[in-house]
Amino acid sequence: MATIESLLRAADLPDSPSARLDAEWLLAAALGKAASYLHTWPEREVPVECEARFVADLARRRRGEPIAYILGRQGFWSLELEVAPHTLIPRPDTELLVETALQLLPAAAMNVLDLGTGTGAIALALAHERPAWRVTGVDRVAQAVALATRNAQRLRLDNAVFCESQWFAALEGQRYALIVSNPPYIRACDPHLRQGDLRFEPSSALVAGEDGLDDIRQIIASASSHLLPEGWLLLEHGYDQAPAVRALFAEGGFCEIESRKDFGGHERISLGRRP
Fold first, then answer.
1. Does residue 126 sit in helix, strand or coil?
2. Does 231 show up as a binding residue in the annotation?
3. Which CATH number does the domain 85-274 belong to among 3.40.50.150, 3.40.50.300, 3.40.50.720, 2.60.120.260?
4. Residue 117 assigned ligand-binding role
5. What pTM value is reported for the model?
6. Is 77 flagged in the annotation as binding?
7. Residues of the chain with CATH 3.40.50.150
């Protein structure tokens, strides 16, 4: 049988800064161990069935499949979430949306909505940090709603619930103090859609028309009728879309409009308050 160290040495992933780390994650998952186990016991022999799984997963990664889909999980905020190919992979950039929401509103009881929830990442991070908030996440994809619900149950976050809805379609008469969303915002012609992880993620959760703003327009146009007076709308968008999104907020009658920068210095979220 091969040892841990020999399998890692032989892993022929494409050369990248994360290649060794990816191989370690895959081998640890195949063994059912924490990654630290690999460094503690590099000379340990790997059971044949575990080696077979590692080799198969390595082949998937070599073809470019995101490691989160291979492992079936991804960290976001302080949570570990189940992920699947019918949802986007939660990314660190989106944590800015969570941080901003937590800064804007108090910990008192209120109703919060997450549009296009996917894995439930945003909704569950908010529910985790604000136990008094009642967070609803909606998604048009039934499989995503089921996945987000499983994540909530596993994390024991009873203040987060999920339901199927195309944006606000199933929410008639509902009002919220806060609405957040990481909607599709990539232009249909963007070449990045044919590169890296995006090749494997659902295009319906990525692409929003020729300028990438179709869904953002729809959300902003409809949000006021679902916000309480002085309620906030927070949206993630592309690194170069902030001026256009702020203009849409202004057209929609919002006030206190601003954009906030991510760690890379790009304006990645915009927000506004309903008067």
1. helix
2. no
3. 3.40.50.150
4. yes
5. 0.88
6. no
7. 85-274
